[in-house]
Write a structure and sequence with these properties.
There is one protein chain. The chain has 16 helices and no strands. By secondary structure, the chain is mainly α.
Length: 356
């Protein structure tokens, strides 16, 4: 009998703790072992750090596996591998020995190849000093390709995933170049899309492109055989820009202090003040609420939105955020009781896992 999509938050969290997180741990342990064997010390350091520090990205993304029915383990294999590519490359570019946009472009070609089963793998490190990763990145790409080969009508839906990936990769290239070039490049890039999304600022648009959730959603439905072009388009339109934007704005929101210390770009810094930031985050919550009404399994997608707010605002960093801590409390209130359920549930999980 096919696995059912949990109908409420307690049932979803039961699946998360009993099935999803243990399977994510199994997948991540494999990639951690592979990362520890990378010959080049810099590549090894960044690969291990990305798994250590960003594990919760894989945990959060893998919640979509409930949409894959009996193929939920395959969905988690794809989601963990794809998210691990994303987090690894983000580390490589953030702490890069290179500031070459062509290098960043070639590295992120791996994310396009991972979504294109017939693409040949390449030497993604060709334009940088560090080279030998023991085929770590190539194997991550091939793992994703092998899962997607199981999808019958992949050609019908692949274009929507590749559009989301192209936006994601453009962002990663533009935001990691020389400091003085970053904002001009991002503003110029946004001009290409401003007419379509005039309600966004350049920094909000940039945030919306930085999420992998739409890709995970489409893949999970497809692995269950419940995918066609019409549904792929509805997911694309419902997830981009608002739900993806909410996801990444929350990520930046909790990282403000960390990014200030590291000198990293943070899109929350471009609002005029804390009040405007809070107003826009609530706007993203409200717009997401409207957009996901167009999706099947609406209750599940609502739980994703509430879970995002609960997950990010449960992070230990939030308590150290001075004025932003008050914003976090008001945002939680605006998001409603379900977000508060996820929030306290995840805080308890974090405490038991030794994060507090």
């Amino acid at each position: 009998m096919a696995s059912k999509i949990p109908a409420n938050a307690p049932l979803l969290m039961k699946d998360v703790y009993q099935k999803i997180f243990p399977q994510v741990n199994r997948e991540l342990n494999y990639w951690k072992e592979r990362a520890s064997e990378i010959p080049n010390p810099e590549l090894r350091t960044q690969a291990l750090a990305s798994i250590q520090d960003k594990k919760f990205h894989c945990q959060g993304g893998s919640v979509y596996s409930v949409l894959a029915g009996d193929s939920w383990k395959e969905a988690i294999r794809f989601i963990v591998a794809y998210q691990t590519i994303s987090d690894y490359l983000d580390n490589l570019c953030d702490r890069s020995t290179s500031l070459d946009p062509e290098d960043f472009r070639l590295l992120h070609q791996s994310m396009e190849d991972a979504l294109t089963p017939h693409n040949q793998v390449k030497n993604y490190y060709k334009l940088r000093e560090e080279q030998d990763d023991g085929d770590y990145l190539i194997d991550l790409v091939i793992t994703c390709q092998n899962v997607l080969r199981r999808v019958d009508n992949f050609n019908v839906i692949g274009k929507y995933m590749l559009e989301l990936e192209a936006l994601y990769s453009d962002l990663q290239v533009h935001k990691h170049v020389k400091h003085e070039e970053r904002i001009p490049r991002l503003e110029e890039w946004f001009h290409l899309y401003q007419q379509k999304w005039p309600m966004l600022s350049w920094y909000e648009f940039s945030a919306c492109t930085g999420s992998t959730l739409g890709i995970f959603c489409i893949t999970s439905y497809a692995l269950n055989g419940n995918m066609n072009e019409e549904l792929a388009k509805r997911i694309y339109d419902s997830y981009f820009p608002y739900l993806q934007g909410l996801h990444i704005m929350l990520d930046y929101f909790i990282d403000q202090e960390e990014d200030r210390i590291e000198g990293d770009l943070n899109f929350c810094n471009y609002y005029q003040n804390e009040q405007e930031l809070e107003k826009r985050l609530i706007y993203f919550v409200e717009q997401t609420n409207e957009q996901i009404k167009n999706l099947p399994d609406q209750t599940f997608h609502e739980m994703i939105q509430h879970g995002l707010v609960g997950l990010y605002l449960a992070d230990p960093k939030v308590k150290k955020m001075n004025k932003a801590y008050e914003t976090a409390k008001r945002l939680m209130k605006a998001s409603g009781r379900k977000s508060q359920f996820f929030h306290w549930n995840i805080r308890l999980y974090n405490r038991l896992a030794g994060k507090y």
